[in-house]
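User: Batch of two.

Assistant: Item 1 of 2:
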Amino acid sequence: MLTEIKDLTAQLTPRLIEIRRHIHAHPELSGQEYQTAAYVAGVLSSCGLQVEEAVGKTGVVGHWPGAGTDERVLAIRTDMDALPITERTGLPYASRQPGVMHACGHDIHTTVGLGTAMVLAQLGEKLPGTVRFFFQPAEEIAQGAGWMVRDGVMREVSHILGLHVFPSIPVRSLGIRYGALTAAADDLEIFIQGESGHGARPHEATDAIWIAAQVITTLQQAISRTQNPLRPVVLTIGQISGGRAPNVIADQVRLAGTVRSLHPETHEKLPGWIETIVQGVCQTYGARAEVNYRRGVPSVQNDPGLTQLIEQVAVEAWGRDRVQILPEPSLGAEDFSLYLQEAPGSMFRLGVGHPDQANPPLHHPEFEADEGAIATGVVTLAYAAWQYWQQRL
């Protein structure tokens, strides 16, 4: 079967490169993927899949029923949205949309998902069970997966697979991660209310800016002294606003930032822990505080059995030297984790790094994925789907 999948993928590769370049040249922002979705739906329909459009607002779902002898439903998820970045690659198929670019490789993801659907459709009833393909919008704003789940895409799904490109891994290689792959990402907003006064008489006022500085410092110090160092927490205050004049003590300050963590137990405790510290500092110095902690997406926790299946498939398809076991997770976020609250799943890293040259990181205006990764991704996902039906996870 592996040989057949590789042969089918090789035949499709020129078409897949055309698809990728079309998508790359016509990027659309999160929640605005109307043309991309229509294009994806057209490709899926031409392969004989049952297609649902406008799922999760601008998402697309493709169904391949297989022979129907196995009741399990395997989902394969890819994402479609681009970023508000002006492309500087100079590619002949560079973005034609000013200020919008596929700088995170979702054009590769979408193409790999379509290629996998094409290959599995040609295998026909050799597949015992149903494969459900998710083409998700709005991953970059961490909302699309939630939209899709609310529209019921995970009903009856037994397991789910996903992938994400990685420029630090060479093209035609893969990265496998057991356990936590990405971090939980939450939003933090703190309002500090003091009392205004003359800059020359601080004892007559309650300086919200100075107290905000104490809050930031105390939070960072408390992480190192009260949180388990083997369960990391990253708290970044990225915005500070307050004050009206150089000689007026500010009465209000707004802090905004992001909080990242890897372990579910730590993630659960963070809102209360931050609230206690902020209120304690503000009360000490006579200020009031309002803490708004907004849950984002949880950590991607890869299912061990499905991750082992991906590793076995990748080693068989490409050889051990092209399969890396990633020793560390990323503190980036991925709303793929929301599907994992509904069913076990696993996501792997697809190498897109060009050999013998510098590779700009994801979200960079010069990010450029090596298209050789497309066939690697298609074969890996298609063969993983085939092997899924041969095993009882």
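Item 2 of 2:
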Amino acid sequence: MENRTYTADAEPGDHVTVAGWVHEVRDLGGIAFLILRDTSGKIQVKFEKDEMDEELVETGLGVHRESVIAVTGDVEEEDRAPTGVEMLPESVDVLNEADAELPLDPSGKVDADLSTRLDNRTLDLRKEEVQAVFEIRAEILRAVRDYFRSIGSTEINTPKIVATGTEGGTELFPITYFGEEAFMNQSPQLFKQLMVGSGLERVFEVGPIFRAEEHNTPRHLNEATMIDFESAFIDHEEAMDVCEGTLKAAYEAVEENCAAELELLGYDDFASPDGDFPRLTYEEAIERINATGELDEQLVWGDDLSTEAERALGDDVGGHYFITDWPSEIKPFYIQDYEDDPELSKGFDLMHPRMELVSGGQREHRYDALVEGFEQQGLDPEQFDYYTKMFKYGMPPHAGWAYGVERLVMTMLDLDNIREAVLFPRDRQRLSP
């Protein structure tokens, strides 16, 4: 809109046109106020009924909440106004009238359950605190990308329609691709490994993944956004260093650049993680979990960690930490085992006290050992020929990891449900909007 001024930029003495949504109308008799909201904030528009054109007053005060309007007028100082200024309108143009009955209240005065909010996400996002979550999410992604570039990593984009799954077919969404069966990709894992064998060497990707898991929990999605990293000529220890660096960079950027959003969300004591993250072996982890006495049954070697086990260990550690040296049988075929102990893998997870954030490790770069790993996990190496054959042509040692953006946002902001960290969630029950 030509010559439009944002409400935050309107100063006493200005003659401006502001445009946005009708947030609230308060009629006090001889005087009335309309609160107009745009992306920068709010401004009070004052209507003095006896001194203004009757049609102007009727237009301004008769418009429904959440209608889109443009107001032109003078800006004056007013200490009693919410932002210290108010407008005296000379014109009000209704650009789009909203229905009188709204499915939820964007002002936040009346609460709505999460399902109603997600059914009406556009309205829900008009709330400042909801917008704040996604401003913080955007800052996390900016900071992570900057960190990756600072260590010489190239951003890539890999296919999301694939002929075979990354880790088998049990969690795949099948689709029809020109008369043939194809799948939505579970992970860019195999493609990013192929890239470290190219001249790029060190790569990262921020993109969607699809998992047909029949979960219905507050921390699982069927479509998620993953941050993936892979680098040639590093081991699992160095990969953990990079992983820790990205997470700290994200926290520090939010702390430095999102003060207003954190205040809206009620975080008075937000702080970046301090010090190095502890690195516990899997064996040490199950010993500490058992020592807490929080589980009904003691864990034994080879058990995966349940939600209750993760929570018990998280409470015991009290911050982010790594679990390293997992049993080989638990980790995927592409994770390398220790030469002196094949039952131990060089896989790791980065944990938040509430849940797992990252899975990673050093990869098996030797062709024969890689094919053997496929066979041990019941997968047919020939179905992955596009991947395995490249390991015959000089694949360097490499390592990497991946974590979900939504889980990072959820744990950073202590959200109750992962769906609050994604614009339009996809789960077992939700395919629209």
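The radius of gyration is 27 Å.
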